[in-house]
């Protein structure tokens, strides 16, 4: 009887699906006190929407586009920093700073997943950005919830305005609001220390 029970238990365990791999954000940058101080100051700049202070910590050759010349002037024009109160930069940059940080070879990057997310083609792979995020049957807040997800990787499909269809490793599919989705094409910020001073050297999206 014990043998049969053991076999049944082993079979049950073998049939159980493996837990989905999760990628919660981490903050490796706390290992560098100088960067922590810089980031605290940068977060305050973002909160105040202080364009002048921001440009002072932006590298002269900042990368902000894959097609246009690099540099502060183009960055400021792209993000309409002449009218900082209405610039969309603050929301995007604030979101990056709140999503962890990676520190590799003296370079910091945010969000954490940019250097440490799941492998795969940028066009196909994304991360559910949060805990207990609702995945719905249709692209609507009133649609039936088919499951919830915590920091899991997904394959992305069709977009529907503010929603994207996603498929999980177990084959479950549904729609997630774009605010809870991060892909390799999403914005990321890179920081480097030059002459003893931390600067933002890239703020870019796409590939």
TrEMBL record:
It comes from the Bacteria. Residues 123-185 form the SH3b domain. InterPro entries: SH3-like_bac-type. Residues 1-20 form the signal peptide. The keyword Signal applies. Pfam families: SH3_3. SMART domains: SH3b (SM00287). Keywords: Signal. This is SH3 domain-containing protein.
């Amino acid at each position: 009887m014990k043998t049969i029970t053991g076999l049944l238990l082993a079979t049950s365990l073998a049939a159980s699906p493996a837990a989905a791999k999760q990628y919660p954000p981490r903050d490796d940058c706390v290992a560098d006190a100088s960067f922590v101080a810089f980031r605290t100051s940068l977060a305050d700049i973002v909160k105040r929407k202080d364009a002048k202070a921001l440009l002072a910590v932006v590298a002269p050759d900042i990368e902000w586009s894959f097609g246009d010349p690099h540099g502060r002037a183009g960055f400021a024009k792209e993000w309409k920093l002449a009218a900082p109160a209405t610039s969309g930069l603050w929301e995007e940059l604030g979101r990056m700073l709140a999503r962890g940080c990676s520190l590799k070879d003296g370079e910091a990057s945010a969000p954490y997943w940019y250097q440490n997310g799941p492998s795969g083609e940028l066009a196909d792979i994304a991360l559910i950005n949060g805990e207990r995020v609702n995945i719905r049957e249709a692209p609507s807040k009133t649609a039936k919830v088919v499951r919830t997800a915590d920091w899991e990787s997904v394959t992305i499909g069709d977009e529907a305005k503010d929603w994207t269809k996603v498929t999980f490793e177990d084959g479950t599919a549904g729609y997630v609001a774009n605010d809870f989705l991060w892909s390799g094409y999403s914005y990321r910020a890179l920081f480097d220390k030059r002459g003893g001073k931390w600067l933002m050297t890239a703020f870019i999206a796409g590939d």
